[in-house]
Amino acid sequence: DLVARQPLPFSEDPNSQFYIQAKETQNWVNKIKSGKDEESHWIAEFWSDDFYKVTFTPPGRWFAIANQVVTNEKPSLAKAVELYAKMGMALADAGIAIWNSKFLYNVERPVHYINRNFDANWESIMNNPYSGVTGITPEFPAYPSGHSGFGGAAATVLTDMFGYQYRMTDNCHKDRTEFRGTPRTFDTFIEMAVENAYSRIPMGVHFRMDCDEGLRLGYLAGKRVLELPWNQ
What we know:
This protein has a two-stranded antiparallel ribbon. The protein starts with 16 loop residues before the first helix and ends in a 6-residue tail after the last helix. The relative contact order is 0.20. It is mainly alpha-helical. It has helices spanning about 15-35, 40-45, 60-75, 75-105, 110-115, 145-160, 190-200, 200-205, 210-225, and strands at about 170, 185.
């Protein structure tokens, strides 16, 4: 029963939550394009991981984060194996639940809504640094967000195994030159997951509801994996 809850009712009424969330995405991207929000631009690119052979995949990014934790903590072999087993299962379950839900609800991406209602020329800030293609939007439904689900699932497992208060610097994109890969420091794994999730709004590829529900499903996927009888 890992299925997303109903999305917001579709509406083009300016007073509706759907319309308001589309406006939020449009306005946030426009602010970045105008050069007025460099922090959000950094966050959006830092967590993007959208292009095969350019960066990690979204779930692969969380294994790269786990690798850094293992390097820092030097856990026993048994604990490391347990970590990767739980991470793999939680990420797989989150992915299955989210992609099933995407095609169950088939919610359009912000770009289509925004082009139709606000600005016919508007596009995301997702750009492939190698191909030169700009303004990209993933070619599958928006709701819920995959990045958000993977982050929620992985952060739940990492928190259970290494504690809630775990300060770390994510060096996954250190020294990248194609985009701003400057490391970012976090106080908790949940903080990382939340930033990862909502980075998709300023990127221009998700509505807020996509991120909200993706995180919820990810947390639930992680929780259910942790509830299995691991130490029997």
